[in-house]
Amino acid sequence: MTTNTINNKPLFVPLETEFFELFESGKKTEELRLYGPRWNEKTCAPGRAVTLSKGYGKQARLTGKIYKFKKQHGSLFGSTYREQIESVYGSLDVEIACISICSIESLC
Question: How far apart are CA 25 and CA 38, in angstroms?
Fold first, then answer.
């Protein structure tokens, strides 16, 4: 599969209910993931469509577009994000994919 084929498909982002609802309400526009083969500059290119899903079910989904991507070291975030990164990954010594999403709309 080529990169063009990958980038033509919406990026699927499963979320816990709390974070899905923040995207749905417009209070959240950025998703942080561990930088790697699934979350990087190629897979998260600006302009790519995104499907935000409450878990893996099909009942609650939102669409949007990536408008910005950056890779950032965990230690360079503000205190709120640093606490979350350390809680999830056990360390701040990790590279994080910061995926900024705009034009978020419900699929229903």
Answer: 26
Distance (Å, whole) CA 68 – CA 59: 27
47-95 confidence digits (pLDDT tens)? 999 999 999 988 899 999 999 999 999 999 999 899 999 999 999 999 9
CA angle 74, 78, 81 (to 5 degrees): 65
User: Could you count the other beta carbons within 10 Å of the beta carbon of residue 4?
Assistant: 7
> Can you give the residue ranges of every domain in the chain?
3-106
Contact 65, 48 (CB under 8 A): yes
At 93-102, the pLDDT tens digits run: 999 999 999 9
Percentages helix, strand, coil for the chain, rounded to the nearest 5? 25, 40, 35
Q: Is 9 helix (H, G, I), strand (E, B) or coil?
A: coil
Domain 3-106 homologous superfamily, CATH: Hypothetical protein. (2.30.130.30)
Residue type at 32 in one-letter notation: L
